[in-house]
Amino acid sequence: MSASYKDYGYRSAELGWAHDYLYPHLRAMLGQARGPILDVGCGNGAIARALIAQGYDVYGVDASESGIAIANAEATGRFFVLDVASGELPAALVGRRFDFVISTEVIEHLYDPRGFIAFARRILKNGGASS
Known about the structure:
4-stranded parallel sheet; Rossmann fold; alpha/beta; 131 residues; single chain
């Protein structure tokens, strides 16, 4: 983990206030496609778990150890600690490709947003190109 990273300190598995307006739009964008989906910066996994409950195949990564612990308590084995700046998937997900990469309330916190986009393209099926 980056020496400058400060864990957010999640305390619950609940959706946050911002999810009230983000989640309906995210569901509309995803439509009927079910995944696999990677939620980068998933925090406590609230959005990913809501999608899983709707039948989506979702995994999540976040730099917050407290958030990932909470997420895994609710949906074991789907959430992993990851410093997105590493540009690498966690060992359990290496070799997987995703139909979608979602990320809410994250990019504005990154020092290298272009690196983040490059990472997302590498893990998307077809490099993110439409088929």
